[in-house]
Amino acid sequence: MCGIVGYIGKRDATPILLEGLHRVEYRGYDSAGIAITRPGGLQVLKCQGRVRDLENMLPKRFKGAPGIAHTRWATHGEPSDHNAHPHCDAANRIAVVHNGIIENAAALRARLMSEGITLRSETDTEVLAHLIAAVPAETLADAVRQVLRIVTGTYALAVLDAERPEAIVVARNGGPVVIGIGDREMFVASDPAALVAHTRSVVHLDDGEIAVVRADGYETSTLDGGPTAKTPSVIDWTSGSFDKGGYSHYMRKEIVEQPEAVRRTLRGRIEPRFQTAHLGGIELTAGELLDIRRIKVLGCGSAYIAGCVGAHLIEQLARIPAHAEAASEFRYRNPVIERDTLYIAVSQSGETFETLAAVQEIKRKGGRVLGIINVVGSTIGRECGRGIYVHAGPEIAVVSTKTFTCTSIAFALLAVHLGRIRDLSTADGRRLTRALAAVPEQIEEIMGREDEIARLAEMLLGCEHAYFIGRSAGYCVAMEGALKLKEVSYLHAEAYPASELKHGPLALITPQTPTIVVIPRDDLFSKNVSTIEEIRARRGPVIAVTHPGELPVKVEAAFTVPQSEPELDPILLNIPLQLFAYHVALRKGCDIDKPRHLAKSVTVE
Ligand code: F6R
Question: Rounded to whole angstroms, how far apart are CA atoms 155 and 593?
Fold first, then answer.
């Protein structure tokens, strides 16, 4: 999604802004632009395409400060040079970059046009530049405040005024804004990734806040002008953790680094004395946890699927009825919020608009929400106020891999914790915590056989469709496997519960439609074997993802993963499917880290 970067200080802003834009490229975008202040006015350059295209266009004399820059992901108006941000007023005095959607843009555009103003783009953002330039105000912050009072919608904004270059004004309503504190210089961004090369001390704006950022400090206030107090926090990611580190793709790097990521999720959280998990951030006493009658997990995409894995774990280990639902659906069906239900919001970025909206709806109705989030200090993390940070590290590839795994591990810890407060025995607590500690090495063992997976991937090259099936938690593995494959390889992949195949989709099984069957050696093994027989009777090719040992049925190919405890098996069964999707996409020559039409962190509805 869109990215914002800003700089104010003594240095030339241009290289800092361009470097920041490169750092947020992973979020997906279609155009880029930059505006800097220099004696005589604003200098603005923007174009459709990549940040590299913008860089190539820059004249040598493009120097100055303060400056703001943007990567755009089109919402209002197609990707084009003139729709790219920054947008300026007619006199090129005010420059605005904006993430989000101004909902009353059509009415505001009509009003400006009736006043004789010529609009140069089809965007909702341009109106802001004209309105800010037109309102009589003593300071830029006052002008921005007055305009935001007549605006409805979501925004993260950064505004420059060529006549008042002593500050950048930023504002937030529904889209992240981070201020980076430097030494007599300051940074602004929509994503901490853009700042970590310069500072790790940051301040996150809250919705309804506006900040005046000068080289030597910042002030925050509400839209009404009342001052707000902020405490800086430290980003725990280094600049190096955003690099590709010699890998050809972020996706592969992030798959390969999973053993270390899982170790971080587990670090300090296994409590051997009581054979349970220690989760400091959930901030609910054992008594409060004992009162929970139901658990509802909410997230979007892979976060939702990780929530399905989590709901299974909780129901099995803690015997609390648990269910996952897509956050995007939940918020629109006027959900019943119950006092004795614990709501869990899952998000890698902590910025997904629909998950955030679901959390806000639950809180508005008096419900309790706990977050399982990767990005520390993110909006959803702060909105939940309590939860488990998964510490997977920055995830740059658009598709989620290591965060899916680490979130599942965090759920396993929570399930053990809830279980040990209830009926899970010490022996089971020991069995599961030992199995969790063994997961990183087991993932390493799978990584060592990547060649086998690459060969399996070749089997899909001539195909247009594939099924992924599994039973119970194995169905969650199938869902995630199918999602990964369609996202990165554009191959049509459909997940189905194995038990439901004969109720319809079996009609579509042909020799050209392979089925990937998730078949752990558990108490449903023989049922899955029967399903494979049914597929083979229709001459459908089968790839089994299973545990070591003979399969009592013929399959075209099989990949085995080390056996864990049955409750944790889904976590390991998912790993080869990530590499599988990666290798299919690699052979098909797809843009693996930035699949078409997709963006990392969907901050609009
Ligand atoms: C899939 C994927 C998306 C995200 C979804 C939620 O590979 O990456 O489906 O899982 O957009 O994003 P977060 O977890 O940031 O809320």
Answer: 26
SS3 544: strand
pLDDT in tens, 120-142: 999 999 999 999 999 999 999 99
* pLDDT reading at 51 higher than 80: yes
3-state secondary structure of 346: strand
Q: What does pTM read for this prediction?
A: 0.85
pLDDT at 231: 92
Q: Give dist(CA 413, CA 438) in Å, integer.
A: 14
Residue 66 preceded by cis peptide, ω within 30? yes
| Ligand 1: centre distance to CA 403 (Å) | 9
Distance 224 CA to ligand 1 centre (A): 35
Active-site residue 600, yes or no? yes
Q: Which of 2, 300, 308, 406 is catalytic?
A: 2
Q: Give the β-pairing of 492-497 and 465-470.
A: parallel
Centroid of ligand 1 to alpha carbon of 598 (angstroms): 10
- Res 175 pLDDT > 90: no
Distance CA 107, CA 92 (A): 23
Ligand 1 pocket check: which of 400, 408, 489, 601 to mutate, most ligand atoms within 8 Å of Cβ? 400
CA distance 48 to 84: 7
pLDDT greater than 70 at residue 15: yes
CA angle (124, 128, 132) in 5-degree steps? 170
Burial (CB count <10 Å: 0-12, 13-18, 19+), residue 246: exposed
What is the C-alpha separation between 210 and 179, in angstroms, rounded?
A: 11
Phi, psi of 343 (to 5 degrees): -95, 135
Q: CB neighbours of 281 closer than 8 A, spacing ≥ 6?
A: 386, 387, 388, 389
- CA dist., res. 313 & res. 476, Å (int): 12
Out of 296, 402, 594, 600, the active site residue is 600
Residue 169 pairs with which residues in a beta bridge?
159, 212
**How many angstroms is it from 373 CA to the middle of ligand 1?**
11
Q: How far apart are CA 354 and CA 360, in angstroms?
A: 10
Token code pair at residue 516: 């990937």
Write down the residue that tokens 């941000």 correspond to.
85
58's tokens? 């820059």
Nearest CA to ligand 1 atom 5: 301
What is the distance in A from the centroid of ligand 1 to the CA of 282? 23
Alpha-carbon span 4 to 520, nearest angstrom: 46
Interatomic CA distance for residues 201 and 235, integer angstroms:
7
253 has catalytic annotation? no
The 3-state DSSP class for residue 30 equals coil
Complete edge-to-edge strand list for the sheet that includes strand 542-546? 492-497, 465-470, 515-519, 542-546, 557-560
CB 180 within 8 A of CB 187: yes
- Tell me 459's DSSP state: T
Q: Is the pLDDT of residue 246 over 70?
A: yes
Residue bearing the CA closest to ligand 1, atom 6: 300
Residue 189 structure tokens: 């961004």
Please work out whether the CB of residue 602 comes within 6 Å of at least one atom of ligand 1.
yes
**Beta strand extents in 357-458 (DSSP E only):** 368-373, 387-389
Which spans in 188-300 are helix H? 250-256, 258-266, 286-290
400 lines ligand 1 (CB under 6 A): yes
